[in-house]
Amino acid sequence: MNFISKLEKRFGSWAIPNLALYIIAIQAIGVMLLLSDRANYSDLLLYGSGVVHRGEWWRLLSFLMLPSVDLGSRLFMLWLFFSFYIFFMIGKALEDQWGTFRFNLYILSGYLLTILMAFINPGAIITNTYFLGGVFLAFATLFPNIEFRLFLILPVKVKWLAWITVGFYVMALFSSDSGARLGVVSAFANYLLFFGKDYLTGVKAGQRRKAFVAERSEAAAQPRHTCAECGVTDKTEPTLDFRYCSTCGKCYCENHIRDHHHD
Q1: Would you kindly state where each structural domain of the chain is located, as residue ranges?
Q2: How far is CA 188 from its chain centroid?
Q3: Summary mean pLDDT of the chain
Q4: Which CA distances in Å does 261 have to 66, 203, 248, 250, 252?
Q5: Which of 45-49, 172-176, 190-194, 211-215 has the lowest mean pLDDT?
Q6: 105-111 contacts: CB < 8 A, separation 24 or more?
Q7: Confidence label for 212 from pLDDT (cuts 50, 70 and 90)
């Protein structure tokens, strides 16, 4: 029984079913707050210094409310609907595949790692972009061949979208601000907590398979028969017949099986 299974056995009853819906509801509240001017975008951002020095503890939760679309766009309601629908679909698929507890744990560990990054660098401004992006990477890993309709027209497999996402994340590590870099680090760290062992197992299995193939190839390259008299083999002279002498038990080609000397 692995560590996650032990946790599930002890705390499984605490898991929240349909957690993706609650996250969508939290973001919907954030959208309403922003549209009604009851909050500014900066009020919802997470940065450790605001929590530690100014007691703005709500930032530990409010950054989850940040919408994933630009509310200034004319079609923001349409894009918001699609983003909510896709996240719900991804969350439901992961929960069905993993079970409620494991999906909850993935979300919780990603959230806690993001919070940890905010306190490592209190001045860094952190959003939920990479935290939620990590959920998409988990989905793409488990369901790589599912197709999305890009711009509602072009069918693209999820695994290619995931690689594009990883590419942007890597670029963010080298070209974005400290908040984005910390967000990427927390997303990758959370992903590796759940999938790192599988990758290591796959690498080791690949190495064993490669060694086995090399061993088989080497064995196939070795001659099965070598003439004790002239040294030709079934590899160098595949047209010759080879036989074993009933007297001395040695192998000889057809030219020497009857014409050889016994010690």
Answers
A1: 10-195, 221-263
A2: 9
A3: 85
A4: 92, 54, 10, 11, 11
A5: 211-215
A6: 105/4, 105/7, 106/135, 106/138, 106/190, 106/194, 107/19, 107/23, 107/135, 109/190, 109/193, 109/194, 110/134, 110/135, 110/186, 110/187, 110/190, 111/64
A7: low
pTM check: above 0.90: no
Q: Is residue 60 a contact partner of residue 115, using CB atoms and an 8 Å limit?
A: yes
- Mean pLDDT across 217-232: 76
User: Do β-strands 147-150 and 251-253 pair in parallel, antiparallel, or remain unpaired?
Assistant: unpaired
> How many alpha carbons lie under 13 Å from residue 219 in its C-beta half-sphere?
6
- Cβ atoms within 10 Å, residue 251: 20
Digit-coded pLDDT (tens) for 164-181: 999 999 999 988 888 899
**Mean pLDDT value of segment 63-92:** 84
Do 233 and 243 form a contact (C-beta atoms < 8 A)? no
- Dihedral of alpha carbons 227, 230, 236, 242, sign: negative
CA dist list (Å): 229 to 224, 242, 244, 256, 263: 16, 12, 12, 7, 12
Which residues partner with 244 through β-bridges? 251
Residues 6+ apart with CB under 8 A from 118: 46, 47, 48, 51, 124, 126, 182
What is the Cα–Cα distance from 8 to 14, expressed in whole angstroms? 9
